[in-house]
UniProtKB/TrEMBL annotation:
It comes from the Bacteria. This is CDP-alcohol phosphatidyltransferase. Keywords: Membrane, Transmembrane, Transmembrane helix. The chain crosses the membrane at residues 49-68, 80-97, 104-122, 160-182, 194-217. Residues 1-24 are annotated as: Disordered.
């Protein structure tokens, strides 16, 4: 027992009497110290090895975190063979501080390094799936959507496991990094003279490597990765806050905001208008060597089938405001004529009175307006922005079949219910419809197949197809399999939509359909564009004549060199082409 402990225990007692302290009531601190001391005496080599192992692990954790890149494509060994200047600065600070401030700084800096590690990992995930880094201001609210996606795609058990794993990872990252920093700072203080010389030597080496531009396999030896990452995050926060204020002003400006109803789309009066987004229908589907052969053959075959039914098409390219996901950003960009590239812009737009393309039809008073939203599984206040008289979500279309991963129902079924519930109704006005198709949503397993239209019923016919299909786990980790299945899903969606048009379209039907964004990098590649195809299909030749000056390709497949516009340019070009007169509304 330590002397100071004995003194505490015996305080106030006669010095001649040796107190008896039962072992079970001894302070835990004393018991642990005694046991550890005994073990050190019995196993000195093992204890020394454990200490070294812990120290090495602490150093690996800290150095790894300091050098960790924020992109999967940069995750190579050479990235971890550099000298981080932050480690040198940290060592100098630890050597200069007294014990208590040193421990406080070690804990705080370790926790901060753990937090930065988490942000770097989020950057990797967002870059892989959404083609952009994580935004520490805006993107936290997307994490519940990620949970829902995992549950819908992989099942509840996997979602729970992933959530628990993520929470554990966060806690471990924060706590272990703090403990590692404490361990290393204590080691530096214990061997202060040696540590000081080593720190000076490391400083000299780092300065020389930086000045001479020395590299290992093309990567600079002198690293300031963590300082740079912090500066980048700070710049993102600053730019996000600045963008929020600027976009509020932009959203108040509208080239057609004050256009009288009678001067909106006069050249489409009497037409049944259908605006359709096909999930993840991107340029890669048409041009990638793996996906393109099947998709191009389908587009060409469906062009011929539509022509036989009297329909003709023109197609071009739009550059989407999003990539890999966040489809609502693509939808709102197309319909608003504004560049909606993040969640803050989306919220600002939805709360504004900026006119959407679909709302323009409602404002005329000459169309009924409806939405078909099989991907919506909760309240959807955005319907007001889109100018919809009503909309039908996933629970309002009578589907009794199986979910196909994230997609609540096959596109063919959703389109048939659109026909049954809305399009076939006798109306005093033509119909303007906004239809969002979801069967080509990742992970592209299982994929529905076309069935006879008259056999769709309540969707139970898809049970056998679902059972025979791939499981998400079969393809989700394989790029070649994901590419092949993605291509099949696009073929299915295009076929379902164009067959519906053949079956139910008429002389006054005008269909505008496009992709919302490219598929994730695992399918489209790390350097894919953000372009998506767009087509306008109609029987009335005057409809396509109005856009002849656009230079779009004939048919459903846009040529490689067909015009490419930003997605935000489409609204105003469309309104202008069909006779709308600009009457700007300004802030």
């Amino acid at each position: 027992m330590q002397p100071d402990t004995v003194e505490n225990v015996t305080e106030g007692m006669s010095p001649e009497v040796e107190p008896e302290v039962p072992e079970r009531t001894a302070p835990v601190r004393v018991t642990l110290r005694a046991r550890l001391a005994a073990r050190r005496e019995r196993h000195p080599t093992a204890v020394r090895n454990v200490r070294w192992a812990v120290t090495v692990l602490a150093a690996v954790l800290v150095l790894g975190a300091l050098l960790l890149p924020n992109r999967l494509t940069a995750l190579h060994v050479d990235r971890f063979l550099r000298i981080p200047v932050e480690a040198i600065i940290g060592a100098a600070v630890a050597l200069a501080l007294p014990r208590r401030p040193r421990l406080v700084v070690a804990v705080l800096s370790g926790a901060a390094l753990g937090a930065l590690t988490i942000v770097n990992l989020l950057d990797m995930g967002f870059d892989e799936y959404l083609g952009r880094p994580f935004n520490v201001v805006l993107d936290w609210e997307l994490l519940p959507d990620a949970q829902s996606y995992i549950q819908d795609s992989m099942g509840r058990a996997v979602e729970i496991g992933a959530t628990v794993g993520a929470v554990v990872l966060v806690l471990l990252s924060l706590s272990l990094m703090a403990l590692a920093m404490v361990r290393l700072s204590n080691l530096l203080a214990l061997h202060k003279q040696v540590a000081t010389r080593a720190t000076l030597a490391a400083t000299t080496v780092w300065v020389l490597c930086s000045a001479l531009g020395l590299q290992i396999m093309g990567v600079p030896i002198a690293s300031d990765r963590t300082a740079g990452a912090v500066a980048i995050q700070a710049a993102r926060v600053r730019d996000t806050l600045r963008d929020e204020a600027e976009f509020q002003k932009v959203a108040k400006v509208d080239e057609f905001g004050n256009t009288p109803p009678g001067q909106l789309v006069p050249d489409l009066r009497g037409k049944d208008m259908i605006f359709t987004f096909i999930e993840s229908y991107g340029r890669s589907a048409i041009e990638d060597p793996v996906e393109a052969p099947g998709v191009d053959a389908t587009l060409d075959a469906r062009t011929k089938a539509l022509a036989k039914a009297g329909f003709h098409a023109k197609s071009g390219w739009l550059t989407s405001a999003t990539y890999g996901g966040s489809s609502w950003l693509g939808h709102s960009t197309t319909m608003s004529g504004l560049w909606i590239s993040n969640q803050q812009r989306y919220r600002t737009l939805m709360a504004s009175d900026h006119m959407s393309l679909t709302e323009a039809f409602k404002k005329t008073g000459d169309w009924d307006t409806v939405g078909i939203m099989p991907g919506v599984q909760k309240s959807w206040p955005e319907s007001k922005f889109y100018g919809l008289d009503s909309y039908r979500n996933a629970f309002q279309m009578g589907y009794k079949g199986p979910k196909f991963s994230w997609s609540t129902m096959p596109d063919q079924y959703a389109l048939q219910q659109f026909q049954n519930l809305e399009h076939s109704k006798k109306r005093s006005k033509p119909l303007m419809s906004l239809v969002i198709l979801t069967s080509s949503h990742q992970p592209w397993a299982p994929i529905p197949k076309m069935v006879p239209w008259d056999d769709l019923g309540d969707g139970s016919v898809f049970n056998a197809i679902h059972k025979a299909g791939n499981k998400p786990s079969d393809i989700i980790a394989s790029s070649p399999k994901s590419q092949a299945e993605y291509g099949k899903s696009v073929q299915y969606s295009v076929t379902a939509l164009t067959q519906w048009l053949e079956r139910y379209g008429n002389d006054n039907t005008v269909l505008v359909f496009l992709g919302d964004h490219q598929p994730i990098a695992r399918v489209s590649g790390n350097h894919a564009s953000r372009d998506v195809p767009i087509s306008i299909v109609a029987k009335d030749p005057k409809v396509l004549d109005k856009i002849d000056s656009w230079g779009w390709s004939d048919g459903l497949r846009p040529a490689h060199d067909a015009p490419v516009w930003k997605m935000s340019a489409f609204r105003d070009r469309f309104l202008t082409a069909y006779g709308s007169t600009p009457h700007p509304k300004k802030d």
